[in-house]
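Hey, can you fold this one?
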Amino acid sequence: MSRALRVLHLEDDARDAELVRDVLEAGGITCVITRVYTREDFIASLEKGDFDVILADYSLPSFDGMSALHIAAQRSPDVPYIFVSGTLGEEVAIEALKTGATDYVLKERLSGVVPSVHRALREGRERTDRMRAEEAARAAKARFEGILDIALDAIISIDSQHRITLFNQGAESTFGYAQAEVIGRPLDLLLPAQFADAHRKHVDEFARSADMARTMGQRGKVSGRRRDGSEFPADASISKLEVGGELVLTVILRDVTDRVRLEAELRRSQKMEAVGTLAGGIAHDFNNILGAILGYGELAQRKVREGRAIDEELDQVMQAGQRAKRLVEHILAFSRSGLGHQVPVHVQSVVTEALALLAASLPAGVRLQQRLAAGDAAVVGDATQLHQVAMNLCTNAIQAMAAGGVLTVTLDQIEVAQQQLLSHGVLEPGAYVRLTVSDTGSGIPQAVLARIFDPFFTTKGVGKGTGLGLSLVHGIVVDSRGAIDVATHEGAGTTFTVWLPCSGETARPPAEASAELPRGNGESVLIVDDEQPLMRLAEETLAQLGYDTAGFDSPVAALEAFRAEPQRYDLVLIDQTMPELKGTDLAQEIRHLRPDVPIVLMSGYKGPQLTALAQAAGVREILHKPLVARDIADSLARALAQASVRT
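Sure. Predicted structure:
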């Protein structure tokens, strides 16, 4: 041993004490023995000495080993106590062991004292190590609980049965429950009822997975339920650890109510800023358009008075009107007034048509290269909206090449094997139709790149753009569950890449043959529009198409006229937004008087609400303002044809 063993020996017989010393030394135990045989000396030695082991006889003249055992258990409980006696019976030995003795050795078998001492010392060391480990565990637990309690986030542990086993002070503050109220109760207590099943499935799936930690749900999309029943948005993550063969799952959750509120306020602020930007850009564009219309209108008036031709001026007025129509269509499309008709679309035909329109009006110095190889690939969406995607991206590219350059458009099919992080979103695995539009223009500065899809954001001069084009592209792509990426280098051009989920194949749409405008055959049309100039324009247009017309700028007066002669009219053309009576309300009144009369509704608004109202009122067709002769002629011809089939 490294040092002498310190032994307190309670023994009144000096010879027996000497025999014990000899046996210990013969067994290789170097020891320093303090022999006592009275109560007073035993207690005094315990108080002064730092002993490794106590050996005690059972019977002494003025004292006894059992009394000494009780004293030692109080004063030196960690020191092994071994009886070495010749008079210890079995019952007494058992009682001694129950009282706290480590072992007993009979004097007639004194050789057993060596292994007994070794065993007692080993068990003492193990006991000391265990106590130290327990103390260290208690200290670590105290530190851990201290960390848990200063954490502002809610930290909650559950067992494999989803019962709560840990609930820190942050959780108490977040949920409003005291720890004692939730320990042992199911985690469902803290979840909105509508999410409880989904949450349980998510946790069970995570427990079976190889993941050790993961984020729960989308950022700010997890919900918690407070004690008062109120719900709140949260960010949450979950981890797992096996403790003593049991799986322990720990959720760290943060109430993000304030953050969500601030984000909403920021979005409202950005919308107000966007509205201001829109107002400036749109007002300037409309002023330019109105300036052209009024200016050329005045020129036409003067020329008419002078008897001169006004074809050129009328052409300019029509061009300005078309510009105004496109501007309104952009605004309505961005506001999602028209959600589009979701059907399989032959993408290559749409892109081909858009490029044909662009090719006819390319600026000098801009050359178009196209490689369209998507075949009959289909994308579920609205053909008009996909046409807008191609047109807006190409128009932006052309405008970026003020000094000329090359516009390259490619279309193909691609299979994406794994998730990809793009400049503006994430591309999930799957089959896609990929549209790429590249230019050799000025590129996009990095400071601007992050905002290019923001509503109404534009770097163009005042009156040259409203910032709606790329916002429309982004909105349509996202609505189609697609993704978009932008690669740009200042001075070296920009490439926009759009991925749209492929939904198989669809037949190429048949080419439309140009035809004369459908004409009427003297059918009587009742026209109702509170805007008198538009009502008169409709009368004039329909008269030129061969219809007999009766126009009213008051829906009430029109209803009275129809009530007086319901059989006179073959078709009714009604504006939707009128001060006295809405067009759909007027349509219902007319249908009550004559259910078979076809009704066509005019409106500057597009959307599912208008469609539902029109269908409920018995409207056959919806015409979207501003109107041109082709739209009116086609719509009336279809409505009259349907009416004749039904009769």
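DSSP finds 19 helices and 25 strands in the chain. Let me know if you want another pass with a different chain boundary.
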